[in-house]
Each structure stands twice: as structure tokens, then as C-alpha cells.
Recover the amino acids of this structure.
């Protein structure tokens, strides 16, 4: 369970990093880059998991995408108040 939480955190971190840098949701090419970055972290920590599972998890996980999208909208709204 700890490994799953760690991987979920990495997925969220990479997705949020992309959205922060580009102010838009990632396209399919960026999705691949995000998953590759997560797979690199998985390999560094020597967690064994088939790469296909990470792709499937990322593609089907709307929760991470919604969470990041909400964060970006809140961030933009706070800049308007300044």
C-alpha cells in the first residue's frame, strides 16, 4: 500500500508540474512524458511494477486530473485578487 501511495504522489506531482509550467492540461505527448518521468522514479527506487499498469492508472485516473485542474483554477483566481 505504501508503494501505491508513493506512485500516486509521483503521478500527481508530475501532472501538477506540467500544468504549472504550461498553464494547460497535458496533451497525449505530454501524458507520455509524465508517465515516463514517473517510471524513471519507480526504477530509481527499484519498485517492481509493470509499466503498462502505470499507463492504465494514469489514463483512467480522473481524480488526479481533476485535483490538478482545480488547483490551477484556484491559483489563477488568487492572482486576479492581487
Amino acid at each position: 500500500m505504501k508503494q501505491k501511495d508513493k506512485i500516486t504522489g509521483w503521478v500527481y506531482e508530475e501532472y501538477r508540474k506540467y500544468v504549472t509550467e504550461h498553464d494547460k492540461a497535458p496533451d497525449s505527448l505530454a501524458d507520455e512524458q509524465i508517465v515516463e518521468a514517473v517510471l524513471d522514479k519507480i526504477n530509481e527506487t527499484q519498485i517492481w511494477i509493470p509499466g503498462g499498469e502505470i499507463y492504465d492508472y494514469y489514463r483512467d485516473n480522473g481524480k488526479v486530473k481533476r485535483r490538478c485542474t482545480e488547483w490551477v483554477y484556484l491559483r489563477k483566481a488568487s492572482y486576479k485578487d492581487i
Q: What stands out?
A: The CA atoms of residues 39 and 51 lie 7 Å apart. Helices lie at 2-22, 28-44, 51-60, 62-80.
